[in-house]
Amino acid sequence: xxxxxxHAVANGRQALAALAEAPYDILLLDCQMPxxxxxxxxxxxxxxxxxxxxxxxxxxxxxxIIAMTAxxxxxxxxxxLATGMDDYIAKPVRLADLAAAVERARRFLPQLTPRPTSPxxxxxxxxxxxxxDLSAVRALCGPAATGESDSLAELIExxxxxxxxxxxxxxxGLAEGKAQVxxxxxxxxxxxxxxxxxxxxxxCCAELEQRAKAGRLTDCPAILDKVRAEFxxxxxxxxxxxxxx
Length: 245
Known about the structure:
- The protein is mainly alpha-helical.
- The chain has 9 helices and 3 strands, in the order αβαβαβαααααα.
- The chain has helices at about 10-20, 40-50, 75-80, 95-105, 135-140, 150-175, 180-195, 200-215, 220-245; strands at about 25-30, 65-70, 85-90.
- It is globular.
């Protein structure tokens, strides 16, 4: 959407592996990830960076790291910067905020071309139900350009696949008595559901995440039932949206 090529990975360890395989200009780094969180990932990246001469004799530009966090608490930005990140945007991410962050990166990465385009106007048709407000995800995607695949359809399909996996992960975590597994999966689904405008589902996930964090697994099966029921409603609404688009 902003004229940049992008790749996605699931956690900090995979990010480090990707960086070892190919050069990147910008890293959008979620602060809370499984296996290796954003803060430690940024610290390791900065620890491993060494100045490298370019063919022109200048030193190579360090990777520009933009933090993404759902926490809007005082000190979050300072913590991100202290671990070596360059910028900060809050989740759920909005296209205008992302465009502004990429534009700020241009001051440090003159090789970035083309200049990011301004977010285009949103389509007038939106979908809102008791379970879902698609205006949130439309604000993130924007309308598809001529000859471009429907980014909204792609995002919905990706979300449904990932959300089902997170629900299954929560169920396995409960069956095995692993509170940390339940907490991580609930946190992940909470964030993606919030980005997509599925706020009731995000609220159920937040409740499950808090109980698991407190070690109260006996409370979790009933909440997981609520998560699955709400996810079924969201799935139905999203599939209806795909049929209309």
